Amino acid sequence: MEKFIKKDNSKFFIVWLVSHYADELDSIGAELLKLAQDRYGSTAVQVGAVKLRKWAAPRGEGGGHVPRWVYLAALDLALEKGFEPADEEEKAILDYCHQFKITHA
Questions:
Q1: How many CB atoms lie within 10 A of CB 25?
Q2: What is the DSSP letter of 81?
Q3: Whose CA is closest to 29, among 59, 53, 8?
Q4: What is the secondary structure of 32-43 as a DSSP string?
Q5: Which pairs count as long-range contacts for 86-93, CB under 8 Å and 24+ apart, including other chains?
Q6: Does residue 6 have a pLDDT over 80?
Q7: In angstroms, what CA-CA distances link 51 with 32, 40, 91, 101?
Q8: Which of 21, 36, 93, 102 has a CB 3.0–4.6 Å from the CB of 42, allowing a cystine?
């Protein structure tokens, strides 16, 4: 499984949401925030398109640390929106993220 952990797992589902819902990022941000508040105790008050794009950007290109509540809520929201792994690499990332959620939620 380690050979598949190449993508930045903390950003994978945020990138997926941004790429699939580019025209709806403010509403996606609101859904993400609601999940994070309800399920993970986030105290953030707003997540909009600009913040989502920043979290999705590679670290060297303006992206930065993704808070744990974002990581967990993005996984939940992507699954609710119909994410299905396209290949073995994405399946391994999904498995890895589920394990992270079990141990860190």
A1: 20
A2: T
A3: 53
A4: HHHHHHHHH---
A5: 88/4, 89/4, 89/6, 89/7, 90/12, 91/4, 92/1, 92/4, 92/5, 93/4, 93/5, 93/7, 93/9, 93/12
A6: no
A7: 12, 19, 26, 22
A8: 36
Token code pair at residue 50: 């600009």
Q: How many domains does the chain have?
A: 1
pTM (whole model) above 0.90: no
Q: How far apart are CA 36 and CA 61, in angstroms?
A: 26
Q: Rounded to whole angstroms, how far apart are CA atoms 49 and 24?
A: 8
DSSP string, 2-68: GGGTTS-HHHHHHHHHHHH-GGGHHHHHHHHHHHHHHHH--------HHHHHHHHS-GGGT--PPPH
pLDDT in tens, 45-96: 888 888 899 888 877 776 777 788 888 999 999 999 999 999 998 898 898 8
- Say how far apart CA 27 and CA 18 lie, in whole Å: 11
The tokens for 73 are 């809520």
